[in-house]
Write a structure and sequence with these properties.
mainly alpha; 131 residues
Amino acid sequence: MIRKGSKLYSIFKNKCPRCQEGDFFKYSVSFNPKKLTTLHNNCPTCNLKYMMEPSFFFGAMYVNYGLSVALFVAIFIIAKVFIGLTILQSFITIVIVSLLLIPITLRLSRIIWINIFVGYDKEAKNIKSER
C-alpha cells in the first residue's frame, strides 16, 4: 500500500526523502537523548545534505506541536468517552502517554519536515556516483 516514491514511504520507513534508500537517522528509536534525533550528515546513498541550512529543523517544532495536539485530543476522547475516566484521570493518561511517545513524535516531526521540502527522485542514486 505504501510504495517507494511516496512521502509516506519515506516517513514511515525513516528513509532519505530523495532516494528513499539511505537511512535518515543514525540509530533506531531509543530513549537515549543523545541518540534520539541524531541524523547522518548526508544520505549514505544519494549524498543529500540533511541539514540544508543552519537551524533547518527548528521548523519541525511546529510539526511536533501539531502532532502532539492531535495526540492529546485523541487520548482525551478515548479516555473520557470510550473508557469513561474522569477529567483528572484523562489528564494523567495524556501526560503519561505523551511522555512515552516523545521519541516517536520527535523523530516523526523531523522526517515530516524534511519531506515537505524534498521530493522523491528515482535518479538520485546516480547523483552520488557522478560526483
